[in-house]
Structure formats: C-alpha cells, structure tokens
Design a protein that fits this description.
Length: 267
C-alpha cells in the first residue's frame, strides 16, 4: 500500500512539475509569425470567410478563429454563444440547429450594410488555402463543455482539416483533452491573468497565449525552460509589435488591417 502511494505521488509530482512542451516545429512561417485576430475586419464582420480571406490578402500567415457548435453538432465560427452580440437575432448558438443558424447573418452592429453568414467551419477550411496556419480557439458554455472539442477531434481524425493547426482555449480542461487525445495537433492555452498561468501545468500546452500586458521577462524565461512558445494577444501598434519581437515571442495575434513592415520590427 505504501509503495503504491509512493509511486502515485512520484507520478503526480512528475506530471505537474517535470514536463516540457513538444515544441512548435513546422508551424511558424516567420519569426515572429503575424496571426490575424478573427480575420481582418475593416470591411467584413469578424469570424467570416470574407474577413479571413482579407487577412490573407494583406499578408497574414496565420488566422485565429473562434469555434462553437450547434445543438445538432455542426461547428460554426463565432466568438459568442449569444447571437444578440453579433446579429439581429436573439438566442444561443449551442441551443439552435444548423437549419436555423444557416439563415442568420453576423455583423448587424459592426457592419450593418455588409452583413455575412455565420460560417460553418467546414466551409472555412474548404475555402482557405492549405498553407495558411489556423489557430482554432475552442469556445465553451461552462468549464466542462466538451461538445465542440469532441466534434473537432472527429474532423481531425478523419483528416478533414488540411491546414497546419493549433487548438487553443481559455479552458485548461479543453487544452488538456486536446493535448492527450488529439496528439498530432499543437495546443495553446489562453490566459488573461497571471493567476490562470498555473493551470498550464495541468494542460501541458505547446504554447502559452498571454494577453499583451502580461508579457514579461520572467514569463518568457519560465516558458523557455518548459520549451513553451508564446503567442501574445492582442497586439496592434507598431511599437508594441516591435517590443514583442524583441522579447522573442513566436506569434503575434493582431487586429491590424495591414502587416507591419519587417524593417519596422527589426530589433
């Protein structure tokens, strides 16, 4: 009994303390890689095929997009479960069927004269170039809502997503699931406070995605010891982008409508 407890204790300590990330080899296309935050939204609503394509046209090598799923198990690209935040319709995406959602347009407030359909993830991956890096952020309605990550895992196992892929989430349990049950895909853990960072020792992500104001030398050093890359959000000014590059981040998630010229971010 004592031996079993000792072995279990060693395993627990090892899991939470003595681990390293797998690295991001093959994902980044440049250093740092500029990642479009929900697509370029100057002309089109966020998280639409049109906004994603616009980001590619201005030079982004990666796209961060948000996903959640409908009542009947279809994955859609949207930042919010609540439809009234982006559309003129009331209700929740996860409580509605795909037949209902396919007829709803987003951008009612941000782009009232240029609203677009809430896209299915299938349509997005079929229409985007295969060399574009995707950072798919999985949304959730509660900490133990695994509905969307389950569906995403099925697509990945069927090889339906051809683009290089990173799965990220603010939910460490979702990141944990992706790390250990979708082993061929890189994972990223999103944090918006220093207190959240401790959960990375449960999730074992390949990347940490801190809010821009959390970036520090101590954080960089801690992640470096664990072989964890950093993708920082949301960084929009020339000065902030140059600072992030000097700090050695792997990716910069940005709302900018254009890419910063490389000479402006050279250390």
């Amino acid at each position: 009994m004592i031996t079993s407890i000792l072995v279990l204790s060693i395993l627990i300590v090892s899991y939470f303390g003595y681990w390293t990330a797998r690295g991001m080899s093959g994902y980044y296309t440049e250093n740092p890689m500029m990642i479009s935050h929900r697509g370029v939204t100057k002309t089109f609503p966020e998280n639409t095929i049109e906004a994603y394509n616009n980001s590619i046209s201005v030079g982004y090598g990666g796209i961060e997009l948000d996903v959640l799923s409908s009542l009947d198990g279809v994955i859609y690209c949207s930042h919010n479960h609540e439809l009234e935040k982006e559309t003129s319709v009331n209700g929740y995406i996860h409580q509605m069927t795909s037949v209902e959602l396919d007829n709803i347009k987003t951008g009612a407030y941000s782009h009232p004269r240029n609203q677009k359909k809430i896209p299915r993830l299938d349509d997005v991956i079929n229409k985007l170039p295969k060399n574009i890096r995707l950072n798919i952020e999985v949304k959730f309605s509660n900490p133990f809502d695994f509905s969307t990550i389950f569906l995403l895992r099925k697509k990945i196992r069927k090889n339906e997503i051809k683009q290089p892929l990173l799965i990220s989430s603010f939910n460490p349990f979702i990141v944990f699931y992706a790390r250990w049950f979708i082993t061929n895909v890189k994972t990223g853990y999103l944090v918006e406070s220093l207190n959240m960072i401790k959960w990375m020792h449960l999730a074992h992500p390949d990347c940490l995605h801190p809010r821009a104001d959390l970036l520090s030398k101590n954080l960089i050093d801690d992640c470096s010891r664990k072989n964890i890359s950093i993708n920082v959000w949301t960084v929009n000014s020339d000065a902030a982008i140059k600072h992030c590059k000097q700090m050695g981040v792997g990716g910069i998630i940005s709302d900018r409508y254009n890419i910063v010229p490389k000479q402006m971010i050279t250390p």
